[in-house]
Design a protein that fits this description.
The complex is a heterotrimer of chains A (273), B (301) and C (282). Chain A has 273 residues and is α/β, with parallel strands linked by helices. Chain A has helices at residues 48-56, 79-84, 92-95, 102-112, 119-132, 149-162, 179-196, 207-213, 231-236, 241-249, 255-272, and strands at residues 4-17, 20-33, 37-41, 63-68, 71-72, 85-88, 167-171, 199-204, 216-221, 224-230. The longest helix of chain C has 37 residues, at 74-110. Classes of the chains: A alpha/beta (273), B alpha/beta (301), C mainly alpha (282).
Chain lengths: 273, 301, 282
């Protein structure tokens, strides 16, 4: 059995805002296997983004520890470790520097980690990256303002891939995209994960996206992990009333989904008693 | 003789001035809303759905460089011809709006109570302060706000998004408008809160007997909420059907693509969507019983 | 050129009816300043020339703006006056902008004690009325052109620090900065190659506006006898000299004053026009 790529033991995070202390996460125990697509689901205040930020090292945990491939992971980490954990953000419109060309944005990780040895190799690598995310290599010359939201998000994905990471934290990567664009980007993400043997920490509030992409799901509510199970089990047989309530609240478009939702609603009522 | 619709739009075109010359955003759309009906206008970004809402609420007509032509009638008035003063007499009284982000739609420097009184004063200019407060508290209790006095004395930033949305709905319906224009309501809210809020909105609207023009990109919400649906793509209506018909039997390639693209909680895999959108320019599909009603002769001014 | 005329920036610029005329005016003033020795009818009058025969002549074909008490052609001296003002502006801003912007960017991005120290010092400088500060510094130094430039630079940098600080703070919150941090780019890279380029448009607009104000401040200092010394032509000192002889030989004060007005107005309106392009984009 392969070692889990990411482990969280008793992780907690609190923030000091003025006089108040906000407990964003408490006592989180989590285990993510290599090659998994693990969804982190919750509404606002659930702490799901905080979890992503802790894994990325944006700030250290207030309690507990995070381990990457068995090694202790701290906020201040060596460059090579930074390279192996990358990010795709929610908002494609601010994710790219408007003053730099697409090619320059893609060149940044290549240069920071010395992944190419010559100018021609850099150009070649950028072309390959663009093709992998379904964009024409000529996009390298263009400025982000000439690209649509979906195209910019693809560039952001290409930039994350440029680092040749092992783990990618995706924080609501398709929430800001239109329905058709979202479907295309989700398929791209699924495809890339299998082809490149990546692990995804997929943060989202959208259970439909979870169902389409995830292997396992962790449900968070107000900073606590309430349920963690395979995606099949979470939908077929949710154990925690909050999970059932989440499933029962999503707007759906087919009769079959409405039926599943109805079951969840009944379950939520039953579990709350 | 069927009563003529409350809101009727026929062949509306809209263009904006730009550095490349005029850009046409609406290419002749037609839709109607009858009294008490809930009609949805569904599309992605850039489809023209939001500008349509802004024309109906009179927020675009006075903007420089905007050219709107066609027939847009609400009750007895031609919304493309009446001035801002006439719109001010309509808004909040005969025609209300609910926006996407509840907390920013409310004025941050006034309490909820003050803002509510302003809304009530538009229909009843002489309303007294205690009377306004009583009616506001009553309206808030209808949106299931259990401590109306505390809320009335609060500022928008002190309340949650869900509560602000309910306050906005209460304010929009306070003067019993005939039409409510809702632009992506609930989008900024959490799923569980959105679900509760939309159900509440539905029952209130039915109680008030108001009609709704509901703008959205979320097909799931539309399926639960609307009686009839118009699907808009790049400034054209591509499909129009009663809700049940649209979801059971979508006929236009764009509608079918949209429905298949929504990730399903029942686990169907996501379909491959071709990059090429040529099929979406197919001619519009109007389902049975959904033809646009005839336009009335002259509009009395 | 046709590509420029169709770009959205130019379109927004054009919409303000004052923008294009101010652009033409500023280009004209800069051209006059650059080509002064060639354009001015009596270039030698910019120096220590005395021609009492032609002193205090009213405007005529030979001297469109008249002559001053020393017989020097006022039009030529105004053209050279613009030259001196713009040189002063370029030097002052050339010192104040790099210092001010660097301090502001560093304070805005790093935060913490760096932010506190830099911004408190900036606040102290900003609390003194700028002209008073310049005068105070000049009072301690010899009244030379160089010292005048030093004094004006010293009062100018804090405005750029505050501007750069605000820009850096807001840009730091943007996604692309987070992305660069996650990728592992150095802080120096992020400041210089990510944040700074996004601050350039606002800083550039301020520089344009400031060129107008530098003309005004320099003129004010010279008017008070603290800046440029005779015989170097400076618009402010020309107004000061000419003011003594009002209203008889009115041209000696009025034309230099109008020149100041036109210069300041031109740069100001151009700056406003640039701000129109800028605001929409942000």
């Amino acid at each position: 059995m392969m070692a889990p790529i990411l482990q969280l033991h008793g992780v907690g995070k609190s923030f000091q805002i003025g006089e108040h202390t906000v407990q964003a996460l408490s006592s989180v125990d989590l285990r993510i296997e290599t090659g998994e697509c693990h969804a982190i689901v919750g509404e606002s205040g659930s702490g799901k983004s905080t979890l992503g930020n802790l894994v990325l090292g944006i700030y250290p945990p207030s309690a507990g520890e995070i381990r990457f491939e068995g090694q202790l992971l701290q906020a201040k980490r060596p460059l090579d470790l930074k390279r192996r954990i990358q990010l795709v953000q929610q908002n494609p419109l601010s994710a790219l520097n408007g003053k730099r060309s697409i090619g320059a944005s893609l060149a940044l990780p290549l240069d920071v980690h010395a992944l190419v040895r010559s100018r021609s190799e850099r150009r070649q690598r950028i072309s390959t990256l663009l093709e992998e995310v379904g964009l024409d290599p000529q996009f390298a010359e263009r400025s982000p303002s000439t690209l649509s939201g979906g195209q910019r998000q693809r560039v952001a994905i290409a930039r994350a891939l440029a680092c040749e990471p092992d783990l990618i934290v995706l924080d609501e990567p398709t929430s800001a995209l239109d329905v058709l664009v979202q479907a295309r980007v989700l398929r791209l993400l699924a495809d890339l994960r299998t082809r490149k043997r990546l692990t995804y920490l997929f943060i989202t509030h959208d259970l439909g996206v979870v169902r389409a992409l995830a292997d396992r799901v962790s449900v968070f509510r107000q900073g606590r992990l309430v349920e963690c199970d395979s995606v099949h089990n979470i939908f077929a047989d949710p154990k925690h009333p909050y999970t059932a309530q989440l499933i029962a609240s999503i707007p759906v478009v087919t009769e079959e989904e409405a039926a599943l939702r109805g079951t969840a609603r009944a379950l939520a009522a039953a579990l709350t008693e | 003789m069927i009563e003529s619709p409350l809101l009727q739009i026929r062949d509306l075109t809209l263009s904006f001035a730009s550095s490349h010359g005029p850009v046409e955003v609406l290419h002749g759309i037609s839709l109607h809303v009858r009294r008490g009906e809930k009609v949805a206008l569904v599309g992605e970004s850039g489809s023209g759905k939001s500008v349509t809402a802004r024309i109906v609420t009179g927020l675009l007509q006075s903007q420089r460089g905007t050219q709107a032509n066609g027939y847009v009638r609400y009750e007895d008035q031609d919304l493309l011809k009446i001035g801002e003063r006439a719109f001010r007499a309509l808004r909040g009284i005969r025609l209300s709006m609910v926006f996407q982000d509840p907390t920013s739609a409310l004025n941050p420097v006034f309490t909820i109570g003050d803002q509510f009184r302003e809304v009530l004063r538009r229909a009843s200019p002489d309303i007294s302060i205690p009377e306004a407060r009583r009616r506001a508290a009553d309206a808030l209790s209808h949106v299931l706000i259990h401590e109306p006095d505390r809320v009335l004395d609060s500022y928008p930033f002190q309340l949650s998004g869900g509560m602000n949305q309910r306050v906005l709905i209460a304010m929009a319906l306070a003067n019993r408008p005939a039409l409510l224009v809702a632009d992506e309501p609930g989008t900024a809210l959490d799923v569980t809160v959105q679900d509760r809020t939309l159900k509440l909105m539905t029952s209130l609207i039915e109680q008030a007997g108001a009609a709704v023009l509901f703008i959205s990109h979320n097909l799931g919400v539309v399926r639960e909420f609307a009686d009839r649906v118009y699907v808009i793509y790049r400034g054209r209506i591509v499909e129009h059907a009663r809700t049940a018909d649209l979801f059971a039997n979508p006929r236009h390639p764009y509608t079918r693509a949209l429905l298949s693209a929504v990730p399903k909680i029942t686990g169907e895999p996501l379909p491959p969507l071709p990059e090429d959108n040529a099929a979406f320019s197919a001619p519009p599909v109007i389902h049975d019983g959904c033809a646009e009603p005839p336009v009335r002769g002259d509009i009395p001014q | 050129m046709s590509k420029l005329s169709r770009s959205p920036g130019w379109y927004k610029f054009r919409r303000n009816p004052l923008s294009v005329p101010s652009l033409v005016l500023v280009v004209l003033i800069i051209a006059l300043a650059v080509f002064a020795p060639v354009v001015a009818p009596y270039p030698e009058h910019a120096g220590a020339v005395v021609d009492f025969i032609n002193a205090s002549l009213p405007p005529s074909w030979a001297h469109p703006f008249g002559t001053d008490v020393a017989g020097r052609d006022i039009l030529s001296r105004i053209i050279f006056g613009y030259r001196i003002s713009l040189v002063l502006g370029v030097v002052v801003l050339g010192i104040a902008v790099p210092i001010g912007v660097t301090l502001g960017l560093v304070a805005g991005y790093f935060g913490g004690w760096v932010d506190y120290v830099v911004m408190r010092i900036t606040d102290i400088f900003l609390s003194v009325p700028p002209l008073v500060l310049a005068m105070a510094i000049m009072g301690l130094l010899e009244p030379t052109l160089l010292n005048g430039m030093m004094a004006v630079s010293a009062m100018w940098w804090p405005w750029y620090t505050r501007l750069a600080y605000n820009l850096a703070r807001s840009e730091s919150r943007e996604g692309y900065v987070l992305a660069a941090e996650v990728i592992g780019a150095s802080k120096a890279h992020i400041l210089a190659r990510e944040i700074l380029p996004n601050c350039v448009p606002a800083v550039f607009t301020k520089i344009t506006l400031d060129l107008g104000f530098v003309i005004l401040i320099a003129s004010s200092l010279s008017f008070l006898g603290l800046g440029v010394q005779p015989p170097t032509p400076d618009l402010g000192s020309m107004v000061a000299e000419g003011a003594q002889y009002l209203p008889d030989t009115w041209w000696m004060a009025v034309f230099p004053a109008l020149a100041i007005l036109v210069g300041v107005l031109g740069f100001n309106l151009l700056g406003d026009g640039l701000r129109d392009i800028l605001d929409q984009r942000q």
